[in-house]
Design a protein that fits this description.
The protein is of the alpha/beta class. It has a domain of 98 residues: 2-Layer Sandwich (GMP Synthetase, Chain A, domain 3). The chain is built from 15 helices and 25 strands. A five-stranded mixed β-sheet has the order 11-12-13-14-15. A four-stranded mixed β-sheet has the order 2-1-10-9. A hairpin with a 3-residue loop joins strand 13 and strand 14. The structure holds malonyl-coenzyme A and adenosine monophosphate.
């Protein structure tokens, strides 16, 4: 926000066809801040949830909450009510800023939970006072919810200092400049969209254009017409862009490819980038995708080089300011190459805590402050290669992290389900797809009906895409479901 003052007249955001300058963004954020403060000096880390589609208004809310000393809790615009309610309850939200499209959905829930309900329109009339002091770096700034090895998502708390470091390292490594223009097609309740795309661009005086939803046609058009200089996405999106290109005429393919060549950077992350996608993208656009590795708790940690080598199947080297090591089963550092171990990360970009979960926070760190990522990697000629995760219960689909345990816990509430187990199956387009094996309470379960019911309970991207009715789940000698043999059943 401090940087923005130096860019006041530059274009900051393109949202629904309107261009907004940094000056307009600061004024809008200031309005949000004043309205939230209502005469008080600081919100003192009150949790301010907000449900606003990716847009100028989204950033105004985020900056306004920050300026007022609150903790921003972005809600996902696609989540069903139970998921939204969980975040409001778990974060102990004090207030909720609501875009008009979600007022009806959330009004009663906010009342029940005693959360102050603030329609977004109320902020447009807020007066434009002088910008208050920037919040102290040690204050908590944001809570992002992440699925994990427990059946309920955890709130990852980052401070202003954490976020600043997460941004600074990427701005330096990927050489962001004020002349850059980027398109955001990612959801804004995860770091990929919020930090890597939006915050890095706005830190640098660059321009962000929001697409409310991903559309392969529009992304290609933005690349072809020179509207953007860089692009970032998950591997599934590159898969979809390639499929779209393949459906075009030879002349159209040529136009799209020629335009895409002009970008200065294209990045893939949030899930493993299959080498065939990297190679196909290179043949279409001339760009070798820069693959990097990160996590909600740590921001980005490893990256291929902006100017130097980008090695297929590898995620590069530690970013500036990131301390990273591989450890063996006894948590001893691995110094040799080609030996797999868990990635552990330390440094100022690492999150502060899981919200109100001191035991989970303590468990996530070693005694000397290393964060245990649960990801397994090896080092090959100085570059890291991700080999997988230490938990079979974590699935990555379309770049989203999904907890198998969470889906199982919800499924068990359905009367047709006696027992169940959820796994991820490899998939070319989605990375993994969610699959559920069910021991039904009666023969011939109606999986379409169960799926419709589930859609009301959990976000659509977590829905099982493959179903299997079984008489019994495979178990080991101590009665625990064995997921490897289960995957083979599919
Ligand atoms: C959707 N569909 C799926 C699916 N998600 N099918 C299988 N598996 C999935 N995961 C189906 C829908 O049911 C629908 O089918 C059809 O696909 C279109 O749905 P959609 O929601 O309109 O899809 P689309 O908009 O194309 O979404 C795809 C996507 C989205 C790739 C744009 O998944 C996405 O935004 N992913 C990014 C997530 C992200 O930002 N992750 C970063 C986390 S941070 P039907 O039959 O109903 O038409 C992190 C740290 C780091 O990981 O390192 O960055
Ligand atoms: P999230 O918790 O949603 O932030 O997802 C973080 C997880 O995504 C990491 O722990 C990794 O498992 C995975 N991930 C991110 N980037 C990559 C990558 N380039 N290759 C493989 N896995 C990745």
């Amino acid at each position: 926000m401090d940087n923005a003052r130096g860019f006041a007249d530059r274009e900051a955001i393109v949202s629904e066809g309107t261009v907004y300058t940094y000056g307009e963004l600061m004024a809008a954020a200031n309005g949000v801040s004043r309205k939230l403060l209502a005469g008080k000096g600081s919100l003192r880390e009150a949790r301010i949830a907000f449900i606003v589609p990716p847009s100028f208004e989204y950033v105004s809310c985020q900056w306004g909450i920050w300026q007022a000393g609150g903790i921003a809790v972005p809600l996902c615009v696609d989540h069903p009510l139970p998921s939204l309610r969980y975040v409001l309850e778990d974060s102990q939200a004090n207030a909720l800023i609501v875009h008009p499209d979600y007022e009806e959905l959330l009004r009663d829930t906010a009342r029940e939970l005693d959360v102050r309900f603030l329609p977004l329109e109320a902020f447009s009339s807020a007066p434009n006072f002088a910008v208050p002091e920037s919040p102290a770096p040690a204050l908590r700034a944001q809570i992002l919810y992440t699925s994990g090895t427990t059946n309920l998502p955890k709130g990852v708390v980052t401070t202003h200092a954490n976020i600043e470091q997460q941004i600074r390292t990427l701005v330096e490594a990927w050489e962001w400049s004020a002349d850059d223009r980027i398109l955001n097609i990612l959801p804004l309740h995860h770091v990929h969209g919020i930090i890597n795309v939006v915050s890095c661009a706005l830190w640098s005086g660059a321009r962000v254009e929001f697409l409310p939803r991903f559309s392969a046609k529009t992304v290609w058009e933005k690349m072809a017409t020179g509207a953007i200089t860089r692009f970032m996405a998950v591997p599934t999106i590159y898969f979809k862009l390639i499929s779209f290109w393949e459906q075009q005429s030879p002349e159209e393919r040529d136009r799209l490819s020629t335009g895409a060549q002009r970008l200065n950077l294209m990045i893939s992350g949030s899930a493993a980038l299959p080498v065939p996608i990297l190679e196909r993208w290179r043949s279409l656009t001339g760009h070798t995708l820069l693959e990097r590795y990160g996590m909600t708790e740590i921001g980005m940690a490893l990256s291929n080089s902006f100017r130097g080598e980008r090695r297929a199947g590898h995620v590069g080297k530690p970013l500036p300011g990131v301390e990273l090591r591989l450890v063996d089963g006894d948590e001893q550092p691995i110094l040799e190459e080609h030996v797999p171990g868990e990635i552990q990360v330390r440094g100022p970009s690492v999150f502060r805590e899981y919200w109100q979960k001191p035991a989970a926070t303590a468990e996530a760190f070693t005694a000397d402050g290393w964060f245990r990522t649960g990801d397994v990697a090896e080092r090959n000629d100085g570059m890291f290669r991700i080999l997988g995760r230490d938990s079979v219960d974590i699935i990555k689909s379309g770049g989203y992290k999904i907890s198998a345990l969470e889906i199982e816990a919800v499924l068990l509430r359905h009367p047709a389900v006696d027992r169940c187990a959820v796994v991820g199956l490899p998939d070319e387009e989605w990375g993994e797809i969610v699959a559920a094996a069910v021991v039904p309470t009666a023969p011939n379960p109606d999986f379409a009906a169960i799926s419709d019911w589930l859609r009301e309970q959990i976000p659509a991207y977590r829905l099982p895409r493959r179903w299997l009715a079984v008489d019994a789940l495979p178990r080991n000698t101590i009665g625990k479901v064995t997921k490897k043999p289960l995957k083979e059943l599919f």
